[in-house]
């Protein structure tokens, strides 16, 4: 059994003190064959496939790999690949601070639906009408890194923002298209609050209070947009973190329960089994057997 899931930063992949890695995917894959095993990133990560088949797993959710598909990942998500045949495209890794000195709005990236950490919103099939434009942007990005010119980093940032906006315009998940802007903003605020407070706040009424709305309003919003209650959204985030921690065999189940602020081990086991359909020990055993 492996001791702990690897956590990669950009430096460990490039052997340089960089905030950015841009590459054609086939050559990157050849240099990093070990990345087919489950691992985490400390950086933002995206891949646009131009050729490929198989599957990948993001936060324990499996999705098919196919040409003209792009996926986005935020720091901390768990990832592994299971490709079939020849795979190519483009890969971009960039650090959390990469845009902070460039944009006045430090959390600008969080406005894009594919940088929420929700897998269903972060794997996007690029329509034929936008494929040439997206490929052209990736080629410009490759060019800027292969032949650096003055202000190259700022040009990369500008091209990346153009890419994000282009993808957002053409590939925003269908669930978000019909949502009124106010409701979408409210839902994103709820998700951000969960991200910061899920170990301490467990009840929808606690989040509703922070959002200055009623628990019924919050529940109705989640049911309308996500098809689940506000309580389920909170519990799903706790269960996801439990899964991320369970694949690290250096941590005992009791230590994980304590990290997630459960009062005792049996309560954590009961919670996890209800959410995941298996006990923490069984989940750990199954996950390790697939590595």
From TrEMBL:
Gene3D superfamilies: Homeodomain-like
HTH araC/xylS-type domain mapped to chain residues: 188-286
Organism: Mucilaginibacter ximonensis
Entry-linked SMART domains: HTH_ARAC
Top-level division of the source organism's lineage: Bacteria
UniProt keyword annotations, A-Z: DNA-binding, Transcription, Transcription regulation
Name this protein carries in UniProt: AraC family transcriptional regulator
Keyword Transcription among UniProt keywords: yes
PROSITE patterns in UniProt: HTH_ARAC_FAMILY_2
InterPro entries recorded: AraC-bd, Homeodomain-like_sf, HTH-like, HTH_AraC, Tscrpt_reg_AraC-type_HTH
């Amino acid at each position: 059994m492996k001791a702990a899931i690897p956590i990669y930063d950009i430096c460990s992949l490039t052997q340089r003190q960089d905030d950015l890695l841009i590459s054609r995917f086939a050559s990157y894959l050849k240099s990093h064959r070990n990345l087919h095993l489950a691992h985490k990133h400390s950086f933002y990560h995206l891949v646009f496939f131009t050729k490929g088949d198989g599957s990948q797993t993001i936060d324990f959710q499996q999705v098919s790999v196919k040409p003209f598909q792009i996926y986005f990942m935020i720091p901390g998500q768990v990832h592994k690949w299971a490709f079939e045949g020849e795979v190519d495209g483009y890969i971009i890794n960039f650090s959390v601070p990469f845009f902070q000195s460039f944009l006045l709005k430090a959390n600008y990236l969080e406005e894009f639906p594919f940088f929420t950490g929700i897998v269903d919103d972060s794997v996007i099939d690029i329509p034929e009408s936008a494929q040439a434009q997206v490929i052209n942007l990736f080629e410009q990005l490759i060019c800027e890194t292969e032949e650096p010119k003055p202000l190259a980093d700022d040009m990369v940032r500008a091209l990346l923002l153009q890419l994000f906006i282009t993808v957002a315009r053409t590939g925003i998940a269908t669930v978000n298209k019909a949502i009124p802007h106010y409701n979408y903003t409210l839902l994103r605020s709820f998700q951000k609050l969960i991200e910061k407070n899920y170990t301490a706040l467990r009840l929808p009424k606690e989040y509703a209070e922070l959002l200055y709305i009623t628990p019924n309003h919050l529940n109705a919003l989640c049911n309308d947009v996500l098809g689940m209650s506000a309580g389920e959204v909170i519990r799903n985030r706790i269960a996801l973190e439990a899964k991320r921690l369970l694949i690290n065999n250096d941590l005992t189940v009791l230590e994980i329960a304590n990290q997630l602020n459960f009062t005792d081990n049996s309560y954590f086991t009961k919670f996890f089994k209800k959410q995941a359909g298996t006990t923490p020990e069984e989940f750990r055993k199954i996950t390790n057997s697939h590595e």
